[in-house]
Amino acid sequence: NSFALLNQVRGAGMSMSNNIAEGSGSNFNKVFRRYLDHAKNSTFENANITILLERRNLIDAVQKEELLENLDHLSRKITNFQKAL
Q1: d(CA 44, CA 30)
Q2: Among candidates 21, 18, 15, 33, which has minimal Cα distance to 78?
Q3: pLDDT, tens digit, for every residue of 43-84?
Q4: For the residues of 37-59, what is the DSSP string, one character each?
Q5: Residues with Cβ < 8 Å from 19, sequence gap 6 or more?
Q6: How many other CB atoms are there within 10 angstroms of residue 25's CB atom?
């Protein structure tokens, strides 16, 4: 079901930002890093969903590649942020 897949994208996208926001309220870097791990895991979930969207012809190959590049960039930024803590 395409509608369910698109809802999953919305949820995973919100999960990324929500985990970062929630973790930033912690007084402990170890806890914040764990929330950043959850946010990064959501980027991988979104990458998988992106591939499924193309397979179902809901996006084209160019859109898929652009989204995957953006998700990879975001994942790397989260990793670098974790290292800085």
Answers
A1: 21
A2: 33
A3: 999 999 999 999 999 899 999 999 999 999 999 999 999 999
A4: HHHHHHHHHHHHHHHHHHHTTSS
A5: 35, 36, 38, 39, 42
A6: 9
